[in-house]
Amino acid sequence: MTEKLHIIPHNYKLGQADKELKQGHKAACLWFTGLSGSGKSTIANAVEQVLFEGGYHTYILDGDNIRNGLNKDLDFSEAGRNENIRRIGEVAKLFCDASIVVLAAFVSPYKKDREILKDLMGDEFYEIYVDAPVEVCEQRDVKGLYKKARAGEISNFTGISSPFEAPEAPQIHILTHQENIEESTQKVVSYITSKLKL
Amino acid sequence: MTEKLHIIPHNYKLGQADKELKQGHKAACLWFTGLSGSGKSTIANAVEQVLFEGGYHTYILDGDNIRNGLNKDLDFSEAGRNENIRRIGEVAKLFCDASIVVLAAFVSPYKKDREILKDLMGDEFYEIYVDAPVEVCEQRDVKGLYKKARAGEISNFTGISSPFEAPEAPQIHILTHQENIEESTQKVVSYITSKLKL
């Protein structure tokens, strides 16, 4: 940190380009979409660590920091889910504007919603499809959600009682039932670092 | 940027402390509250420039990037304004979590809302009261909003048809009708840089 800061206000608002230049890399939104239990958060966390250690400024948006905060007023109906994704997209855009590589890990089952994200963020939006058969995800059932969904305790559960509309042309397609975490992580990191060059 | 990135995923989620250490400074939310035309955005922009040039990672949340995006569904009724500030607070908290010094410039006229922000962000929240008499603000009327409010074209306009509940114990009190921009900026920068030391 510079100890002595100079006060020379000029009528100029810092923009994304100023910050990217200082950071040494472009901003981007890596959007991980896929069923519950497909491995979105696991891969996003692993990718973030590699990028962070490589000098990138990163941040993860996921259910942990969104559903109990910004979006705690929303339910899991289709309308609630639409608004959930809309708000997350707007927040991701702000993080891009701050020159950060933001990783978002959300089921985001509707094509329409992901199209809105693409329109909102343009070339900075990268769709990463974290894919595994629903049977595999259900078997993993890390959070016990499939069990609850089968028991009827959760309604509108994607893959069980609510559809997942798979991406048709994601930038990256990960198959977590066939690849290990290292392979999936490498795939994302290799692709994205080439895109983050200034 | 490191050219070769190593893929060694470990089951660990990067936290705010990891990022603050890398950035070399703590995160914080500088919340600028005050009437329209009091100078919130001007001071926030000037403070951001000084901090940015001093090596801090900064970002500004203001009407420009919030009202047309995340909060475009909200009106200016008291309920709409409450929700506006709640969401901005949640977003500011995410930016703190990403180890950024986030500057938020919003009228935020209600004490109750600012109390919620304090509760949400704790010690990372700094209330900066950008103060000028309503007559001075109305005379400046940079955006022509007071004129519209007087003509009845804008309802619930703070200072005219809606109250501004002044902060009782802000961390910083700026008087833009008595200080120049350099003085106000210096006041904020001096105070906050001492707080941002790791």
Descriptive notes:
2 copies of one chain form a homodimer. Chain A starts with 15 loop residues before the first helix and ends with a helix. Chain A has a single domain, classed as P-loop containing nucleotide triphosphate hydrolases (Rossmann fold, 3-Layer(aba) Sandwich), CATH 3.40.50.300. The longest helix of chain A is centred in the middle third of the chain and has 20 residues, at about 80-95. By secondary structure, chain A is α/β, with parallel strands linked by helices. In chain A, α4 packs parallel to α5. Chain A is built from 8 helices and 5 strands, in the order αβαβααβαβααβα. Chains A and B meet through α1, α2, β2, α3 and α4 of A and α1, α2, β2, α3 and α4 of B.
Q: What CATH architecture of chain A do you see? A: 3-Layer(aba) Sandwich
**Poorly predicted spans of chain A:** none
- The total number of structural domains of chain A is 1
| CATH third-level topology of chain A | Rossmann fold
CATH class of chain A: Alpha Beta
Beta percentage of chain A is 5-15%
What count of helical segments of chain A does DSSP give?
8
